[in-house]
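Study this fold:
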Amino acid sequence: MNTELLKKIKNQGMNPETVEQQIENFKNGFPFLEITAPATPGNGIRIMDEKDLAHFQSTYPSRASQIEVVKFVPASGAASRMFKDLFAFLDGDGDLSKSKFVQKFMDQIEKFAFFDDLNEVLKNRGTSIPDCLDRKDYKEILAALLLEDGLGYGSLPKGLLKFHRYENDTRTPAHEHLIEGMQYAVGTGQLVKIHFTVSPEHEEKFKAEIEGIIPILEEESELTFDISYSQQKKSTDTIAVTMDNEPFLEEDGSILFRPAGHGALLENLNDIDADLIFIKNIDNVVPDRLKEPTRQYKQAIGGLLLEIQEKVFDALRRLDQESSSENVANAKSVFTEALGGKLPIHFDSLPLEEQFQTIKEKLDRPIRVCGMVKNTGEPGGGPFWILEKDGSQSLQILETAQINLADPDSERHLQAATHFNPVDLVCGTRNYKGEKFDLLQFRDMNTGFITEKSKSGRELKALELPGLWNGSMAGWNTLFVEVPLITFNPVKTVNDLLRDEHQ
């Protein structure tokens, strides 16, 4: 890289060595992971029966009350993609017959929780939603909904849009996450700690929304809320390149750096010091009438993690006391039975000292329990068994981009997959000595993504860091648990709010 480019990189506050490695990644691509099998019920996915559910739900609250629990909610995404079809109509010729999506939106507009707010905007302009519908002036409705001089929904984050209507109230996803937090994220001191990752331009709006809700919830529940915020760190942005893998230069001569996807949030997660961290996306919320399965299974996977973590910690403490064959055998049993891990085939033939080192290194890692739902054709990653360099196998969540579809075996494993990832995680990020793990040490930097984008009419290639629940957690100990489909209700488009689960 020439001196002029290095100077620009430094002047823009980025690390030249990191950027050079990113350019090499563009040139060489990322290796595909070697799948040995899809994770399925009985082979990597645990099915909880009623007895399991009852056990973990009964043990979890008392255990959680003795530790620090945090709910981590990635909430920085703009809602603009939710309204892609509405924007296209607003910018187009206004012919409703050409868009079934907009037709459905208009036909059922009174069902949206933001209906009254939108109607109020139009009344202030001397009209109303019914008047606009009668005149077929659909663009006026959409302009009032999406643009800054109206509700401005087109530029707000999902977390601040009105999703659900109640008898005397409406709620945003941010509000619903506070309610959910009261049901399973109550830690020591009756404290509900929730951390939102937000974009800089929306942080004040999030604070205003949440500060207006908390006093009411605290009075009703006798719980205390501790809400914190962070922003995706600029230092995690990745360089964009031309189709020839040269740095993409803006019109002013500066180098284009782009946000690196949700994998960049590993830095934010790493800054949180807690015993137990739940992770759930901002748009995956339901009204109160459907929250019970979510509460049950969140408590169950939290309880499962704490119980297994206790066995892991006990095994590691015993290894610290003595590297005997008995303690190594006990640690092996915890890894293969409690965690469900798969050691290298040659493990038992290793000298005792090597067995000790191997099993201790395998156990002394962050741990996560991930809910998995049955595959219904939704896009997203899935659970698989991966062959590691040392001959062991690990459970990983893979995106399709990480799978070699040209390889018949990988394609066969993909087709045989039964479940997919709804982003429903609980994480243990402290070790058996009570110290916080450095999560950056457990990611696999060979699991990034390269995508093709455009800027100012020019094509470019963009780089995403290893996904937060994909390669960023590749070195964690992982358990998969089947959770009911009703716990997964994402809102990808505005019309998803018309589904019964959001009414």
Notes: The chain has a mean pLDDT of 93.
